[in-house]
Each structure stands twice: as C-alpha cells, then as structure tokens.
Amino acid sequence: MEAVDACGGRVTIGDVAGRAGLKLNEAQNALQALAADTEGFLEVSDEGDVLYVFPKDYRAKLLGKSLRMRVEPVLEKAKAGVEYVARVSFGTALIASIVLVYTAIVVALSSGRSEDDNRGRRGGRSYDSGLTFYMNPGDLFWYWDPYYYRRRRVQTERVQTDDNKMNFVESIFSFVFGDGDPNQGIEEERWKLIGQYISSKGGVVAAEELAPYLDIESSGDTLNDETYILPVLLRYEGQPIIDEEGNILYRFPSLQRTASSQMSGRKEYVGRRWADFVGGVDKFFQEKKWQFSNTSSSERAMVAGLGGLNLFGVIILGTILKDTTTAPAGFIEFINSIFPLLQIYAGSFFAIPLFRWFLLLKTNADIEKRNKARQQFARSLELPDISLRRKLLSAREMAQKTFIGQDRIVYSTDKDLVEQDYEAQEWDKRFREIEKSD
C-alpha cells in the first residue's frame, strides 16, 4: 500500500515489486487482492502493459471491509444462536400453549358449573377423536438439533419419496420458520463450475466467458469494466495478458497442466457450437429459489389447524377470564399472569409465516433477476458480435494444455531413490530433444 501511495494510486507489478521488495508473483497476487477488496480496476497501455488503478479512498474501503470480515463471523454465530433458541422455544411452546390454554378453560368452567365441566370434557374427547395425527415423543429432540437445517437438506436431496415426509415436530417449525437457505454452500459449486470451465478452455479465457457464473448487473457499462474478474484471478492465480489486437485475456497457468490426456490438444468451439459443446460444464450458474415450506399441503393444513386451535382457545380463555367475577386463584391466577404471553405467541404463530412470505417474494425476485442476468450473458456467448468473436477466437488460439505423462516422471515416493536412475533418464531425454532439433 505504501508503494501504491508513492506512485499516486496507479502502479505496475514492477513498481510494487521494486518498492516493496517482493517477488513478481507475490506483488501480482497482492495487487489483485487489494484491487478486489477496494474496487480497483485495470488499465492497459499502448504497449500492452497492465496497470492497477486504485481509488483515492481505497484505504478506507479496505479498513471497512477488514472490519466487516472480523465482525461477520461473530454476527453469523450470534444469528445461528438466536435462530436455534427461537426454534426450540417456539416449537416447544405450541404444545405447551395448547395444553395450558385448554386446561385453564376446563378448570375455569369446572369451578363454576359441574354440568358445563362434564360437557366440556365430552366435547374435548370428541374433538380429540376427530384430530388424527401421529406424534412420537422422540420427535421433540429435533428441536434441540443445532444442525437441523443442514441435516434436513441432505435428507431431502438424497431421498425424494413419501418415506421422507416430515414428522409432526419438523412440520411445525418448517411452517413457521421455513427450511433454511437452499443456497447454503452453493458458493463452492460456483467456484467448481468456474474452475472446470477455465480448465476446459485450455486455461485462457475472456472476462465475458466467466460472466455467466458471477453476480454482475446486466448492463453494457458493467461488462466494459472487468474488475469483476479480479476474485477469479486471485483464487486461481490467474494473470492478465494482451493479445495481438490489444484485447485483455486471462491466463491461469495452474489450470493448464493436467495428468489427464482426455483434454490435451482439444480445440473448443466459439459461437453457436458453444451452446452444444461447453466442455461438459453448465452454461451458467443458477441460484435456487427459497421455498415457503417443504411440507406437503396436508402437513401444512395440520400445523395451521393446531395453530388455529391454539388461537381459538386463547380467544375463548380471554373471554372467560374477562367475564369471571371471582378473584382468580391457584392455577387460574398463574394463567392470568402469563396470558399476555399466550396472546403474543398465538398471534405470532401466523404473523411470522406471513412476514416471511412477503420477505420471500422480494428475495426470490432478486434471485430471479441475477439468474436472468447470468443467462443473458450465456446467450451472448452463443451469438457473439464480431469483436467478442475475435476475442474468443484469440483466447482459443492462446489456450494450451500440458499433459504430464508417465514418461515425464523423474521421481516417485513409492520407490527408493537408489532404484530411480534419474541421470540416465535425464540424459536420454536430452538426447531425444537433440535428435528432434536435428
């Protein structure tokens, strides 16, 4: 950063390497990381030199991102803890609330009229016989599973049958809280696709080829600014290069060396053929939309019915407590003291899913917008204009694959060093090279 400041915010790799005493590859990696974190960008001179340009407030931006990177893990842990406590408290409270509310109704009625008490008990039994659902007491342990969302997602992906239906307890907080982020861990899939694509193209690509896998706004001005490629360069140790026409391409040397002969020496297609032949890699990265709940319609109806039963009981109990002329005592006094909490819980049982439903509308709209933008970038590769076609053809011409076969192995750890005649192999290799040159 001192070297960047000394050069006025516009530096080459040589500037930083010379002033900071770094190796060229170290200076390049550092500049890429700094540019990616501070919204820096690249410039190319008339002789093909690559310059890194940083905004005047790049130090402040780096400080803000550094602080955010330190705070985010703490916030994520706190968020996970709050969600965990909320699931445990909210889910367990449904059963407890129903038991308390209807027990209080029975006790309040029995204290005044024995006939009403008998009728209330008979009515309770007739209602219970009509509500049929299976609840295993062991299901309650799902509330105390901190890895529930992750475990449930894995089960859903592995088995998509009727045997994979949620149990009673899972259905409750799936209806209220949902089933977690469907895109959790999807960043690993994104980088996997990018790495596979670069490798399939011989280690040299244009920035437009990686746009279908990144989060970029769908606008022409955005594509002209290729700073979005910096995180990819940093992750796969890439470097910008200039072709004969002055276009910026990106080479990834580490992805050009392979032990598999399947991809060596193969040319990739440009234009329409790209749509049918893209190296076995998905054409664009697609995020999954959030679902309100993975429960079936019958399961949602059952959970909503229980929530409605609880809400109805709270309303009836509130009427009874309001009309009671005698001072409450014992159990009824306890219920009267926590009755506001029972009201809040009964209302939030439906308020939380309703709020979450509106939130999912916006979240899914943003996901759809990003997916469409990436799909649009992918389509532009199917029908490239003249300049983009030349750029892609140039990248294909500069692409290469180095196959490391058995004949190039000079040492192996599965054999003793004495058994491996390295000098003989080296002289034989040099002799073959001399024969080829002759």
Our measurement of the CA-to-CA distance between the termini, rounded to an integer number of angstroms, reads 52 Å
What is the domain tally? 2
Structural class category: mainly alpha
Give start-end ranges of low-pLDDT stretches: 114-135, 140-144, 158-163, 263-269, 271-277
Q: How much strand?
A: 5-15%
Topology order in helix (H) and strand (E) letters: HEHHEEHHHHHEHHHEEEHHHHEH
- Choose one word for the global shape: elongated
Give the strand tally. Answer: 8
Structure in a nutshell:
This protein is mainly alpha-helical and 438 residues long. It is built from 16 helices and eight strands. The chain has two domains: 80-111 and 134-259 and 276-406, no CATH class; 407-436.
Structure description:
The chain is mostly helical. It has 16 helices and eight strands. It has helices at residues 2-6, 13-20, 24-38, 58-110, 114-130, 148-158, 168-177, 186-200, 207-210, 220-224, 230-236, 272-276, 297-323, 331-382, 386-398, 422-437, and strands spanning 10-11, 41-44, 50-53, 204-205, 239-242, 248-251, 257-258, 402-403. The strands form three sheets. The chain has a three-stranded antiparallel sheet with strand order 1-3-2. A three-stranded antiparallel sheet has the order 4-6-5. Strands 7-8 form a two-stranded parallel sheet. A hairpin with a 5-residue loop joins β5 (239-242) and β6. α4 packs across α13 (297-323) and α4 packs antiparallel against α14. The protein is elongated, with a radius of gyration of 33 Å. Keywords: Membrane, Transmembrane, Transmembrane helix.
